[in-house]
Design a protein that fits this description.
- By secondary structure, this protein is of the alpha/beta class.
- Strands 3-2-1-4-5-7-6 form a seven-stranded mixed beta sheet, sandwiched between helices.
- The protein is built from seven helices and seven strands.
- β1, α3 and β2 form a beta-alpha-beta unit.
- The protein has a single domain, classed as Vaccinia Virus protein VP39 (Rossmann fold, 3-Layer(aba) Sandwich), CATH 3.40.50.
């Protein structure tokens, strides 16, 4: 991740945004995960993990990131026995099948180029328990192709633009691999989804 992206992921406005999104779009699921085990991919400096703990009160959060610098920063920022920070590749998760009741991602998957973002979603499906929930808050290539801010971010930050997903492509793919879409909200640059692993 480039320096600008790292900085943006660790700002106070981002903390406020993630808190707002979680309260607004995920509130109906707060009690569902109380005392459960959850995974966060792309945890950055730990902002998302703290918000997950605050509202969902799981018994354990495994918060992962591919960037060792972010894991060190998260470990220094967050001191809670319920949260474990680990270096992990979201496209090759080293966890057994059916390990988690839910998986969260706050703006991480758009950093993963194709075909690895598809692998990431299949890995998430694999490590989720049957009926496990997937919480997505992310952007697509369209967000970097329109508006002054989107074009500015594209010019100043490094992303896999040539291999980034389109929003409808992403939504179609999660349903094709075995998720049932429970909730969808499009707004601004970001989109929010809640999906459930279907029992086979």
């Amino acid at each position: 991740m480039d320096k600008l992206s790292v900085w943006l992921c660790n700002t106070s406005p981002r903390r406020w945004i993630l808190d707002f999104v979680t309260k607004k779009y995920y509130k109906e699921y707060f009690n569902v995960l109380r005392g459960k085990k959850v995974l966060e991919i792309g945890c950055g400096s730990g902002l998302g993990a703290r918000i997950i703990l605050k509202y969902f009160v799981p018994s354990e959060i495994i918060a992962t990131d591919l960037d060792e610098r972010q894991i060190v920063l998260a470990g220094n920022n967050v001191g809670d026995a319920h949260i474990i920070f680990e270096i992990a590749d979201a496209a090759q998760l080293n966890y057994p099948d059916h390990s988690f009741d839910a998986v969260f991602e706050y703006g991480a998957i758009h950093h993963i180029p194709s075909p690895d973002w598809q692998k990431c979603l299949r890995e998430i499906l694999r490590v989720l328990k049957p009926n496990g929930k997937l919480f997505i808050y992310d952007v697509s290539i369209e967000s970097f192709s329109k508006g002054v801010y989107g074009k500015l971010i594209r010019y100043t930050s490094k992303h896999p633009y040539d291999k980034m997903f389109r929003k409808e492509e992403f939504i179609d793919y999660i349903q094709s691999v075995g998720f049932r879409l429970l909730k969808r909200k499009d707004g601004g640059r970001y989109f929010t989804l809640v999906a459930e692993k279907q029992c086979t």
